[in-house]
């Protein structure tokens, strides 16, 4: 039996806490904790992290003032960093690659991380949302940070902000994790931090980065329209807001009207804007390259990742160590190039769960994707069509979930051609689970 699952974009569960915040404040991390203590510390961190999520009434009020709140995100995040002893200019040490976009920004970041790690750099990767565990959002050298390290860094920041709670309320879930991620990357002394924008770009909490090495914008689509606008040009304005003077901006080919907006913003800020070439225009060290993240649409993300990676290597002075012919062939941003074997291996070994993912379990094969816009459902459907051509005919079951702010009537038509035998629709009702080990809450 085969099933297509549309993964829920948001889900919450209750997490019990067996270690109080007061007790946590007095625990020293200098010694090696037992396995049980490590689990308790981590669960306590998750409990306190989940407490930063907004309740229904607060969310309603935030939506009413969303435009004012958006504009406050960056200055508020700067204030949080400073309360934690981190000056924004300190983030320059992370040699950041900053990526916005509607579709494919997580996959693009994953490709970039895999490439730079493969050629010898210590990487930090910050993405959202997570699939199962909150610590998936913060990775060092491709691996989610360990439970005990997450707890240690979490409470270092949490305790510092608690001291200021009388003057300022504790930050939101995403804003706080952004501060924690930057702290972790500084403490772990990464060579490069690949940072995915949360929502939009101009007013996103990650946009405290003042001097990125290079920025990228992936495919644009209509999403988060209440905050970003109902047209692609409006959305493009927000996404392009991450660009900074002195750092090139490379974009996946957008619509003409969206590109016009981004060019205008680039001109205002004195930024070099280039369009990533087709993946077909590169010359690969191996024929029939197969990206580790499935789907034909991933090849445009791969091209953007190749551009971002080479720009980073060039600007950091490491281009010739990866591209031996760089001296003879002066490469320009936006041009295709010869992709060496090491980078091909990085692309093919890249793994990003929940994106066109196939999981075989017993007699059932699951085809998983978190698509939640019309464009992403279209490419998900195309990927599923490609898969069906290679497998025997079996019973097909659709499991579909759509959060309340999205219109399923704009999404489901892309799946009707597959003639499912059964369809299961998940209600948008949240159920709390008293599971001590669960930390699937997302924000």
TrEMBL record:
EC number: 6.3.2.17
Binding site for Mg(2+): 128, 196, 224
Cofactor entry: Mg(2+)
Coiled coil: none
Sorted UniProt keywords: ATP-binding, Cytoplasm, Ligase, Magnesium, Membrane, Metal-binding, Mitochondrion, Mitochondrion inner membrane, Nucleotide-binding, One-carbon metabolism
Family named by the database record: Belongs to the folylpolyglutamate synthase family.
Protein name (record): tetrahydrofolate synthase
Native organism: Parelaphostrongylus tenuis (Meningeal worm)
Lineage, opening ranks: Eukaryota, Metazoa, Ecdysozoa, Nematoda, Chromadorea
């Amino acid at each position: 039996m085969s099933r297509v699952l549309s993964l829920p974009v948001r889900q919450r569960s209750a997490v019990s806490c067996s270690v109080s915040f007061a007790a946590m404040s007095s625990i020293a991390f200098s010694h090696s904790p037992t396995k049980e203590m490590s689990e308790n510390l981590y669960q306590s961190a998750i409990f306190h992290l989940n407490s930063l999520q907004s309740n229904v009434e607060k969310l309603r009020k935030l939506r009413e003032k969303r435009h004012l709140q958006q504009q406050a995100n960056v200055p508020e995040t700067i204030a949080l960093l400073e309360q934690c002893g981190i000056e924004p200019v300190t983030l320059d040490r992370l040699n950041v690659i900053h990526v916005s976009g509607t579709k494919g920004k997580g996959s693009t970041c994953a490709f970039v991380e895999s490439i730079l790690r493969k050629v010898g750099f210590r990487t930090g990767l910050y993405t959202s949302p997570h699939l199962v565990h909150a610590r998936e959002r913060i990775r060092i050298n491709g691996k989610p940070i360990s439970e005990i390290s997450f707890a240690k860094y979490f409470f270092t920041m949490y305790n510092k902000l608690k001291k200021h709670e009388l003057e300022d309320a504790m930050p939101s879930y995403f804003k706080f994790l952004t501060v924690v991620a930057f702290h972790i990357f500084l403490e772990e002394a990464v060579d490069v931090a690949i940072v995915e924008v949360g929502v939009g770009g101009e007013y996103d909490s990650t946009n405290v980065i003042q001097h990125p090495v290079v920025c990228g914008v992936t495919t644009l689509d209509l999403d988060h329209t209440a905050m970003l606008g109902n047209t692609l040009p409006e959305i493009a304005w927000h996404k392009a807001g991450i660009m900074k003077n002195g750092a090139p901006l490379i974009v996946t080919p957008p619509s003409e009207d969206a590109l016009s907006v981004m060019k205008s913003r680039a001109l205002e800020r004195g930024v070099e804007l280039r369009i990533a070439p087709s993946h077909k225009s590169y010359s690969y060290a191996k024929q029939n390259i197969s990206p580790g993240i499935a789907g034909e649409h991933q090849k445009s993300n791969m091209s953007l990742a190749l551009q971002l990676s080479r720009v980073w290597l060039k600007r950091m002075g490491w281009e010739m160590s990866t591209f031996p012919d760089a001296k003879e062939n002066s490469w320009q941003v936006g041009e295709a190039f010869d992709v060496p074997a090491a980078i091909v291996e990085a692309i093919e070994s890249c793994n990003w769960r929940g994106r066109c993912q196939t999981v075989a379990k017993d007699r059932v094969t699951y085809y998983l994707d978190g698509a939640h816009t019309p464009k992403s459902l279209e490419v998900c459907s195309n990927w599923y069509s490609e898969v069906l051509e290679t497998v025997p005919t079996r019973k097909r079951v659709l499991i579909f979930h759509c959060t309340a702010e999205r219109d399923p009537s704009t999404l489901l038509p892309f799946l009707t051609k597959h003639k499912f035998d059964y369809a299961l629709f998940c209600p948008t009702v949240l159920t709390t689970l008293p599971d001590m080990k669960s930390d699937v809450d997302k924000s």
